[in-house]
Design a protein that fits this description.
57% strand; mainly beta; 120 residues; seven-stranded mixed sheet
Length: 120
């Protein structure tokens, strides 16, 4: 089974930046994409971004396009999320996800989550 461990969350001011990392270990051979979801208080978990390992295609939610950038390492076991121009509405727990991306992200593994708080 695959394990996903996030790091890099924390507190930032509006307009600032944070970088999240997620390292995968264990059975990663079944993982064809990695990405990020987030869940704000009293809201449902929502898709943020994903990267497909086979061709490097990237996908973003409209709310983060132009501000967030997803990338991965050559080993295809670590994914990063560079978050710039942060807004208070980006405050949420960010979850790393692994799985398959077709027209949407089919998640098979979740990380434990890392808190991102953006102050105004």
């Amino acid at each position: 089974q695959e394990q996903l461990v996030e790091s890099g969350g924390g507190l930032a001011q509006a307009g600032g930046s944070l970088r999240l990392s997620c390292a995968a270990s264990g059975r990663t051979s079944d993982q064809f994409a990695m990405g990020w979801f987030r869940q704000a208080p009293r809201k449902e978990r929502e898709f943020v971004s994903a990267i497909k390992w086979n061709d490097g295609s990237t996908y973003y939610a409209d709310s983060v396009k132009g501000r967030f950038t997803i990338s991965g390492d050559n080993a295809k076991t670590t994914v990063y999320l560079q978050m710039n121009s942060l807004k208070p509405e980006d405050t949420a727990v960010y979850f790393c996800a692994g799985g398959v991306y077709y027209s949407a992200f089919l998640v098979t593994s979740w990380g434990q989550g890392t808190q991102v708080t953006v102050s105004s």
